[in-house]
Amino acid sequence: MADIVENLKPTHRRSETSSPFYVAHTNDVSAMGLVDFADCDECSRYPNRWSNMREYICAPAAEFMGAFILCLFGCGGNCQANLSANTKVSASPAGDALTSNLCWSLGLSLGVWISANYSGGHVNPAVTIASATMRGFPWKKVPIYILAQLLGALCGAGVVYATYFHQINIVEGGSNIRTVAVTGGLFATYAADYLTSVSAFFTEFVGGAMLLTGIWMFTDKKNGPAPPGVVPVGIFFVVLAI
Where does the sequence pass through the membrane (predicted)? Predict the structure, then answer.
């Protein structure tokens, strides 16, 4: 209903259909279902409760799906590469560090692609906070964006965990054994034993700064921005490089 027909004057008569979005017109163009809301006193953008709710949950739902896809591909790549290295799971490795990195890059690229048109394609809390700090993104939307991203990431990782549950049991040595050293790193980032907390923070800060620089490089209107459909491809290469 976003399309507006110029000089289209509807007769103010409600149609017999169940949707008040549709208004009967006296010309053939009305068959397309296009309505000029400015000229229609009886038309509403929110004909029911769901249509009103949809406007508010659209962006968080997009962020949820973006983070879901990111972790589905990323954690899935981690599990495939690392678990298949165990001879009890696979006769030969089915992946390596490169395939794992490709999965994370593809995951973020596809996550941005599915959510960009509805929420801006943040997918990552760091991007949301940085956008609110530096790019004028409304702070009031930050909490719901981050919540949606965290829930999407947890669900994506949960699907991967369910998929590789039996392989994880084999590698860990039982269904009641779960350790960070063996399989914990497949689903989260942990600092190496030799790193201090400051060094671990600095490492993540540098990676996040590189990601944000790449995103803003592609989207800054003063920098000759890439066409919208090309931005996820550019993000793929940025994450792969990181």
Answer: 144-164, 194-218
* pTM to 2 decimal places: 0.78
The C-alpha atoms of residue 227 and residue 116 are separated, in whole angstroms, by 13
Residue at 37 is within a domain: no
**3-state helix/strand/coil string of 70-136:** HHHHHHHHHHHHHHCCCCCCCCCCCCCHHHHHHHHHHHHHHHHHHHHHHHCCCCCHHHHHHHHHHCC
Residue 227 resides in a domain? no
CA–CA gap between residue 137 and residue 122 (Å, rounded):
11
- Give 129-188 pLDDT, tens digit per residue: 999 999 899 999 999 999 999 999 999 999 999 999 999 999 999 999 999 989 999 999
| Domain count within the chain | 1
Question: Which residue range is the domain that position 79 belongs to?
Answer: 52-201
- State CA 184 to chain mean position distance: 23
124 neighbors 74 (Cβ within 8 angstroms): no
Structure tokens at 81: 């590469």
CATH number at residue 108: 1.20.1080.10
Separation of alpha carbons 234 and 221, rounded Å: 16
Tell me, yes or no, whether 224 lies in a domain. no
Classify residue 237: in a domain, yes or no. no
